[in-house]
Amino acid sequence: MSILLQVERLIAGAVESNANVIFDSTVTSSGNISYDSVTGVITILEAGRYEFDWWVATQASVSTIGAGFALVSSQGDTIIGNSPTKTGEVVGVGVIEVVTAPVTVALTNNSSATIYYSTIVPVNASLAVIGTDEAVLAFGSLRGSSVETPGATFTPVPFNVSGPLSDTVTVSLSGNELVVGESGIYQVTISINAEATTDPDPDQPYLNAIITVNGVPIFGDTTTFFKISNRSSSTFVVQAALTAGDEVGASISTDFPILGYMNRSLTIVQLSN
User: Fold this and answer.
1) Of 69, 179, 193, 257, which is least packed with CB atoms within 10 Å of its CB?
2) Which tens digits make up the pLDDT trace of 141-171?
């Protein structure tokens, strides 16, 4: 049975140093996982491997080490995402293997001072958890934070940070794709946050995004195209058969010249041979 959780923070405010980010809205929750909106703690009730994708929109801080957050579990896992700038977005992605349930997880401000959330966006933070009771044989992830402004033609999404990676998953020569080393069934997740360079357009601009394999749509048709609205974050998940040597990436286009994107992550998990 699949285990899913997606939570968001819709209100402004601040999070003190070493305090948990409090998500006030639960978008999706299914399977043996729960979320406490008072403490910000996620409780995983079933052993398995879990993928975490999160981002936080920040506005200001007096921290001396930039803006940083860490996903911390009760079994000792720590996944850090940070930024040298204090106005923008901080993003993180990683995999936690739960050996003995229950395990608790929380996203914590690990910078040296209070961080203030943005006051101009409708969603200030988002966190998604994807787990499965099937055996995970391999995994890999990429993430990026540069500001990109795509055009009307689909172009590859660039990434600048890789890992964690298992032994059979590598990064392509361009750095923008994950290369699978074994044929099998894989789960692919792409998360992207759209950000306009001016005030939101009343016509609600959006990005067109697609998961690619060897530069073409993963299923060869429009089933993997999805839209990301202005100042929103979207996560898209598919499961597909991949062949050893396939390069998995993402591409984006838009008809709205003011609309770009910033934080994003790409993750693959091998479920079976």
Assistant:
1) 257
2) 888 878 888 988 999 999 988 888 888 999 9
Structural domain total, the chain = 2
**Residue pair 259/205 in contact by the 8 Å Cβ criterion:** yes
Same domain, 161 and 79: no
The residue range of the domain holding 264 is 138-272
DSSP one-letter code for 84: S
Same domain membership, residue 196 and residue 105:
no
181 shares a domain with 155: yes
| Residues contacting 53, CB < 8 A, separation 6+ | 92, 93, 127, 128, 189, 191, 235, 265, 267
Looking at the structure, tell me whether residues 13 and 123 fall in a common domain: yes
Tens-digit pLDDT profile for residues 33-92: 999 999 999 999 998 888 898 889 899 999 998 899 999 999 998 888 888 888 888 888
Q: How far is CA 219 from the centre of its chain?
A: 22
Q: Are residues 169 and 77 in the same domain?
A: no
**Omega before residue 164 within 30° of 0, cis:** yes
Looking up residue 168, the CATH number of its domain turns out to be: 2.60.120.40
Residues 7 and 128 in one domain: yes
Give the count of alpha carbons within 13 A of 145, CB side only: 18
Q: Is pTM, for the whole model, over 0.85?
A: no
In this prediction, residues 80-107 reach a mean pLDDT of 87
DSSP state of 257: T
